[in-house]
Amino acid sequence: MTARPPRGPRGPRPGIRPLGANDPESPGRRRRPSRLGDLLPDVARELGLDAELALARAGAVWDALIAERVPPAVGACRLAGLEPDALVVAADEPIVAAELRMRAAELLDAFAQATGSPRRRFLRIGRDRLYPGQGTGLPRV
Q: In this structure, what CATH number is given to the domain that contains residue 64?
């Protein structure tokens, strides 16, 4: 039997390339992963879902505002639509709709400040279509 050449710290085995050498899949050549939140706007634009993404982001802002300013209404109302001059909100109960109407100016100002968008003039409140026994649906002025 013949002796094998040494392996290990003295050099790579014959036929094995060092990591990152001309291999695009090598860990040494990979770039940092992108955050999903950074990729979403471009993907949504390519799929034609800009409006849906904007509504989802605005809905998250709305939920945070309601939690901060009208805690009893948390879970009982949601942002249903964005119009150039109005926010369309669905409320589960008439008492929640009345509370939102009383605080409309405050909520519209806070929403504009939180999103950096122009202040809308109206808060349109209707009943949520998800609950069939609650009337004809949105929008109800």
A: 3.30.300.180
